[in-house]
Amino acid sequence: MAQEDVFKKIVSHCKEYGFVFPSSDIYDGLGAVYDYGQNGVELKNNIKQYWWQSMVLLHENIVGIDAAIFMHPTTWKASGHVDAFNDPLIDNRDSKKRYRADVLIEDQIAKYEEKINKEIAKAAKKFGDSFDEQKFRETNPRVLEHQQKRDALHQRYSDAMNASDLNELKQIILDEGIVCPISGTHNWTDVRQFNLMFKTEVGSTAEGSSTIYLRPETAQGIFVNYLNVQKTGRMKLPFGIAQIGKAFRNEIVARQFIFRMREFEQMEMQYFVKPGTELQWFETWKKTRMAWHQALGFGAENYRFHDHEKLAHYANAASDIEFHMPFGFKEVEGIHSRTNFDLSQHAKYSGKKIEYFDPETNESYTPYVIETSIGVDRMFLSIMCHSYEEEKLENGETRVVLKLPEALAPVKLAVMPLVKKDGLPEKAHEIISNLRFHFNCKYDEKDSIGKRYRRQDAIGTPYCVTVDYDTLKDNTVTLRHRDTMEQKRVNIADLQGIIEDRVSITSLLKKIM
């Protein structure tokens, strides 16, 4: 099945099973805005809990805050967002559709990479175990041709982006023959910059109101609170401040479901360090964050680092953690060495002295910062994409199952009476009453047991318990595991011990210690 078709099925599955809905769905939705349903919000909260505990529970020198969405407008002047938070946009005159020029070119680069991968896949299938991929890449004429075109385009694109050369970006699009996906034509406008921040007004009257912005990132809320946290917490370098919160960007080209939205959520940690040590800490946090991702068990081959060639004006190192989505490797987290730019800018614009007094060296200086920033929604999507499976069974049937990491699953245990009579529902509710304090349990009595199993498979419930007539006699139940579909009789008194450790966030945290 084509990866595009798989992705469409995942999007459909998210709506059908209460994970993600189009926002304002009864009014035909609002572009690039989504609501999380009853199962989606549980999965999302579990992701956030896993991240939060990995930061503030496992690190004695990292604390959390929750900064306001509205901030003084000078904040965004100091950070550079007012003047430089732009995307290069281009319109197609025939379709009247607007696109990001950089995305169009990046998609073209990906097409060359896809052609290379197809050649490699064909050769690997043909030659089997004797296939030498490295040698094939170095000698096959078609691969070399595609690689040369890819590298030349990548270099040209990188040079244009670093120089902010909008004319060159358009010329690349024309030279590569990139067409509008809607009209199929090359009838492009010039490339121009578009600021991504949402504006609003605060104040009781139109005359007395002032323009403020919805924050486009959560990092600045941490930077402006640096002094408050450092002094009240008596924090010593190195130390970190973590935050989870909403951010807003007026994305013109929002696409790929919840991958790129106008309202999204970030999990960010800013780690303040002594100048001169930042690049060592940068490497440390790259390893730490990759370990966090790989603890989910999706396979190391589905992750890779992408080091930035074009650095933001505030950074001296930057790398993305990319995950293999159905539409290619895409960024889910960024690790950046932001130098002392942010604190220095806020000191300049606020007139406040933002420094750290180092008792060991008896000197004051502005700390450098290592940032880890992960999109909750992108993380959610990567988990859904990897967990979704259409599994062929021995009897010829197909089951749709979400093989979610057990600790992140919305529902940990479904309890089902075999029939809706003879005291079995009451016994099932009794089991739930005892276990609901430890993990999320659900009661399900509608339809046959087989259909109920399939329904729980589709939302990723790792364990199901069936209460039958023998339960009333010996206090045992049938425990079924989602991934293997294996069933066994266990004592009700043992359920908590069997399940709790496997479905707790602690089970994931232990893997990254």
TrEMBL record:
Q: Name one GO cellular component term.
A: microvesicle
Q: Which Gene3D superfamilies match?
A: 3.30.40.230, Anticodon-binding domain, Bira Bifunctional Protein, Domain 2
Subcellular localization is given as: Cytoplasm
Is Nucleotide-binding given among the entry's keywords?
yes
Which catalysed reactions does the entry list for this protein? Answer: tRNA(Gly) + glycine + ATP = glycyl-tRNA(Gly) + AMP + diphosphate
| Enzyme Commission designation | 6.1.1.14
Q: Would you kindly state one Gene Ontology biological process term found in this protein's UniProt entry?
A: glycyl-tRNA aminoacylation
Instruction: Write out the residues that bind substrate.
Output: R100, E217, F264, E265, Q266, M267, E268, E371, T372, S373, I374, G375
Query: Do you know which InterPro entries this protein is assigned to?
Result: aa-tRNA-synt_IIb, aa-tRNA-synth_II, aa-tRNA-synth_II/BPL/LPL, Anticodon-bd, Anticodon-bd_dom_sf, Gly-tRNA_synthase/POLG2, Gly_tRNA_ligase_bac, GlyRS-like_core
Q: What GO annotations for molecular function exist for this entry?
A: ATP binding; bis(5'-nucleosyl)-tetraphosphatase (asymmetrical) activity; glycine-tRNA ligase activity
Q: Where does ATP bind?
A: 249-251, 259-264, 331-332, 375-378
Sequence ranges assigned to domain Aminoacyl-transfer RNA synthetases class-II family profile in this UniProt record: 197-417
List the keywords (alphabetical): Aminoacyl-tRNA synthetase, ATP-binding, Cytoplasm, Ligase, Nucleotide-binding, Protein biosynthesis
What is the enzyme's main class?
A: ligase
Key word rRNA-binding present in the record? Answer: no
Quaternary structure note: Homodimer.
Protein function: Catalyzes the attachment of glycine to tRNA(Gly).
Q: Which family does it belong to?
A: Belongs to the class-II aminoacyl-tRNA synthetase family.
| Protein known as | Glycine--tRNA ligase
Annotated organism of origin: Paraprevotella clara YIT 11840
